[in-house]
Amino acid sequence: MEEAALTPLQVYVLLHLRRANTDYAKGIARKLGLRQEEVVPVLAQLERMHLVERSPGSAIKRSEARFKLAHEVRKHHLYYTLTRGGRHKVRSLLGAGIQRYLRERYSAEAPDVLEVLRRSGCENHLVTARLVSMPGEQAKELLERMRREKLVEACTAKVLKRKHRKAKAKKETRTHHTYYRLSRMGELLLRGVL
């Protein structure tokens, strides 16, 4: 299975489990700022792909679950850990890079678009397209696709201050277009969750 077939949320869950060693849906959702109901089906899909498995036993130690604060806790949730195939998939994602994953999944300009949003805060599709040298409509389609997959989100303010839109020198900008910014998951994926 190619990396590009995985959704960004699935990639994030795999990378998160690599760091955490074992975790449950609510812990993963909390880290991303999502609802638990959004993460549970992703874990089920990854389990069907044999990339994650349920962690056995009735108790878990901090040495196994790195994000736990207590030395040992009883399992009150369903914990997941990476399978051997999942560890190989994460290694290939990190070895070749998240940049390659983004190029294969979206387009050659996708990493540059996300980098522009990371640096500028909120930006519209026209300025983003100009900064990465691509047509405006293509940039809008790319941003909307990444918004549907929760890599970017729309800025909801009607007036953006200079601190929200760093690429613009004006004090304030009235929003006549849809402005986009990196979501929490987009930031974490861009950093490679490291």
Which key phrases capture this entry?
194 residues; alpha+beta; Arc Repressor Mutant, subunit A; 2 domains; three-stranded antiparallel sheet; 49% helix
Which CATH architecture of the largest domain? Orthogonal Bundle
Largest pleated sheet? 3 strands, antiparallel
Rg, rounded, reads: 19 Å
Helix proportion range:
40-55%
What amount of the residues lies in strands? Answer: 15-25%
CATH topology of the largest domain: Arc Repressor Mutant, subunit A
Secondary-structure element pattern, one letter each:
HEHHEEEEHHHEHHEEEEH
Query: What is the CATH superfamily classification of the largest domain?
Result: Winged helix-like DNA-binding domain superfamily/Winged helix DNA-binding domain
Strand order of the largest sheet: 1-5-2
Q: What is the approximate shape?
A: elongated
CATH class of the largest domain, please? Mainly Alpha
Class by SSE composition:
alpha+beta
- What gap, in angstroms, lies between the N and C termini? 24 Å
Question: How many domains make up the 3D coordinates?
Answer: 2
Strand segment count: 10
**Can you tell me the residue ranges where pLDDT is under 50 for at least 5 consecutive residues?**
none
Number of helices: 9
Round the mean pLDDT to the nearest integer and report it.
78
